[in-house]
């Protein structure tokens, strides 16, 4: 049985064309190889709550890129705990690229945004000290407008990081792409994986995407 059907893939490409819009120049990343390791680090959005592990965005991303992608998501985690756990993960996995998607639970629990930004700043610093690259994924604030919290762009600009700023806001604004108010469903995670993979192509981390068929 196929994991992803053709209709889903076509829908994703149409959605990504809308999300991408006018492209701004992205920072370049170090090209990855077949022996590289990607660490997808975050909370339930990384773990894949709302679908099964093999349909989480890290699993799909691994197939799209052909590169080992570790799902290191912990449901319910806030950034204060994440920055402690990250130290162990970096020592354990020695990633070449870290996809950092964190802060959603801080926003839901109304943690002071300056503290959340500080925690993410420390995580980015920690990753960069190992020599790994970072892609930052912005999480929307829980509101009717679903705009990304502004500190994600501030951090991306401070460290010259590639930022995927729109995909989660777009997914969570579409009831057909989410399993509940804060988590994507299978189709939503597919769209998330494609958005990140396309960003990796734009930033020269990879040359092209593999087919999911």
Question: Can you give a write-up of this model?
Answer:
By secondary structure, this protein is an alpha/beta fold. It has one domain (38-202): SGNH hydrolase (Rossmann fold), CATH 3.40.50. The chain has helices at residues 6-20, 44-47, 57-65, 79-93, 104-108, 113-129, 151-159, 167-172, 186-202, and strands at 37-42, 68-73, 97-101, 133-137, 163-164. Strand 4 (133-137), helix 7 (151-159) and strand 5 (163-164) form a beta-alpha-beta unit. The N and C termini lie close together (11 Å). Mean pLDDT is 91; it is low at 6-11 and 17-22.
Q: How many individual β-strands?
A: 5
Architecture, according to CATH? 3-Layer(aba) Sandwich
| Count of runs of 4 or more consecutive helical residues | 9
Q: Please identify the structural class as seen in this structure.
A: alpha/beta
Short description:
The chain is built from 9 helices and 5 strands, in the order αβααβαβααβαβαα. The chain is α/β, with parallel strands linked by helices and 213 residues long.
Entry keywords:
single chain, 213 residues, alpha/beta, Rossmann fold, 9 helices
Topology:
Blueprint: H1 6-20, E1 37-42, H2 44-47, H3 57-65, E2 68-73, H4 79-93, E3 97-101, H5 104-108, H6 113-129, E4 133-137, H7 151-159, E5 163-164, H8 167-172, H9 186-202
